[in-house]
Design brief:
- By secondary structure, the protein is an alpha/beta fold.
- It folds into 2 domains: about 1-70, dopa decarboxylase, N-terminal domain (Up-down Bundle); about 90-350, Type I PLP-dependent aspartate aminotransferase-like (Major domain) (Aspartate Aminotransferase, domain 2), CATH 3.40.640.
- The protein has helices at about 1-20, 35-40, 50-60, 85-95, 105-125, 140-155, 160-165, 180-190, 210-220, 245-250, 310-315, 345-380, 405-415, 445-460, and strands at about 130-135, 175, 200, 225-230, 255-260, 285-290, 300-305, 385, 395-400, 420-425, 430-435.
- The strands form 2 sheets. It has a 7-stranded mixed beta sheet, sandwiched between helices.
- Helix 8 links the parallel strand 2 (about 175) and strand 3.
- Helix 13 (about 405-415) packs across helix 14.
- The structure holds pyridoxal-5'-phosphate.
- The site of pyridoxal-5'-phosphate (PLP) has 15 residues, from helix 6.
């Protein structure tokens, strides 16, 4: 066992060292993928080596290519870091190496999912009777939610999609805002509904669905199996769809409402922001992420469904060799997700929630939004720079010039090592895009990052 203990000690020391320097380190790594591959390249070794040698090689070879996305000055995608508690619980998860398929395969894994799941519903304003699948992220959560939706809306029209498939069945209408997240489109491809099934509702300038237009879109086609995809938190602007209105209209048309709330559903955890998700409890399914705003390590998302029996009918399966899947047992674990064998994802989420508590989670969400506003104020004070969105949440869109200028400014910021942010195209215009989602970002980090933008703009726009 001593080789294992020594190896774990090295790993713990490396993790601690890495995280302690995250606050100060350059954000973008020096090495490219191909440089790293070239340094690693060799044909598959015929013989193995000791754990000590494996670790040495792993750490030395990976270090130059590690992006400090877990740190406080990374503003790309919508990424959180990981709180200490969530990280340590994730390390424990790997060590315990549980099969979280069902309660027979690992009672602890399922119990922690049960408890963390009910805490999540409480925080996010989702009915306590909803089922929760611990999935890999919001893409998976949207896929699970829309799979349940597809099953039920077709059932309501006398069609069993699980048995019959889609061929020959009624056409499923999928109605979504023009600025839905691209994972909705991918889900439609995966589910065989196809992107062309989408009927788009016009959006307001901030990207939120124009809820007043939804009724007209629903009336414009033949009544039939219908799914409405709403969104809490636009990936560019942070804008929220009006869930209250959307659910009311959708219900008049007997449509299923799925809410993609990858990061925006966390507004429900803040008394200052909760009004953005008014009506959230009226939807039928919801997708949300742990690895964004809850700052749980990656591969952490949640698929909620108001009708557990539909959720399980869409996702569950059994086989003769499986124990613990008998009918009548409580649903759980593998009944609500895409995978069969899977990691015990509940421990890390439980640890994040347990360590922060209700007030700590609210503080993380509020602080990120305050930091986003500070970022916006700092940027607006730079000559030739303008924030173009209303910073209602943690997302900031910034005009710095035409498309080539914007891309060059983004690259210069990335290369500075002071901050990392990307660019996006929003309503035809190339803009810098900032997401403040890390629990550890401070005012000093924001001010340093504003400085990095100012320097890059000065160098690129006025060489
Ligand atoms: C609104 C929205 N939906 C879905 C996703 C996809 O999430 P994930 O990368 O966790 O699958 C994102 C990612 O940023 C998002 O912002």
């Amino acid at each position: 066992m001593s080789e294992l203990r020594d190896g774990l000690a090295v790993a713990v020391a490396e993790i601690a060292r890495y995280r302690e320097m995250l606050g100060e380190s350059e954000v973008a790594p020096p090495a490219t993928r191909s440089e790293l591959v070239a340094a690693l390249a060799q044909s598959l070794p015929a013989e193995g080596v000791s754990l000590d040698e494996v670790l040495n090689e792993l750490v030395e070879s990976a270090r130059p290519g590690l992006m400090a996305s877990a740190g406080p000055r990374y503003f790309g995608f919508v990424t959180g870091g990981s709180t200490d508690a969530a990280l340590v619980a994730d390390v424990m998860t790997a060590g315990w190496d549980q099969l979280a398929f069902n309660e027979i395969s690992s009672p602890a894994s399922l119990a922690f999912e049960d408890v963390a799941g009910s805490w999540l519903k409480d925080l996010l304003g989702i009915p306590s009777s909803a089922s929760v699948g611990f999935v890999t992220g919001a893409q998976a959560a949207n896929t699970v939610g829309l799979t349940a939706a597809r099953l039920q809306v077709l059932r309501d029209h006398g069609w069993d999609v699980g048995r019959e498939g889609l061929n020959g069945g009624p056409t499923v209408r999928v109605v979504a805002g023009g600025e839905r997240h691209a994972t909705i489109d991918r889900t439609l491809r995966l589910l065989g509904l196809g992107e062309n099934a989408l009927e788009l509702v016009p959006v307001r300038p901030d990207g939120a669905m124009d809820a007043e237009a939804l009724d007209g879109v629903l009336r414009s086609g033949a009544a039939g199996p219908t799914i409405v995809c709403a969104q809490s938190g636009n990936v560019n602007t942070g804008a929220f769809d009006d869930l209250q209105r959307i659910c009311a209209v959708a219900k008049q048309h007997q449509a299923w409402v799925h809410v993609d709330g990858a990061f925006g559903l966390w507004a429900g955890a803040s008394s200052n922001l909760r009004h953005h998700v008014d009506g959230v409890e009226l939807a039928d399914s919801w997708g949300c992420d742990g690895h964004k705003w809850l700052n749980v390590p990656y591969d952490s998302g949640y698929a909620f469904c108001a009708r557990p029996e539909v959720h399980a009918a869409a996702m569950g399966y059994t086989a003769n060799y499986l124990t613990g899947q008998e009918q009548g047992r409580n649903f759980g674990g593998g009944d609500f997700v895409l995978e069969s064998s899977r990691r015990a994802r509940g421990f890390a989420t439980w640890a994040a929630l347990r360590s922060l508590g209700r007030s700590g989670i609210e503080a993380v969400v509020d602080r990120c939004c305050a930091m986003a506003r500070r970022f916006a104020e700092g940027l607006n004070a730079i000559d030739g720079v303008a924030v173009v969105n209303d910073v209602v949440l943690n997302q900031v869109l910034v005009r710095v010039g035409d498309e080539p200028t914007t891309d060059r400014v983004a690259l210069a910021i990335q290369e500075s090592g002071d901050a990392w942010l990307g660019a996006t195209t929003w309503h035809g215009e190339r803009l810098l895009r900032i997401s403040v989602s890390n629990w550890s970002t401070t005012s000093e980090d924001i001010d340093r990052s504003v400085g990095a933008v100012a320097n890059a703009v000065r160098r690129i726009s006025r060489p």
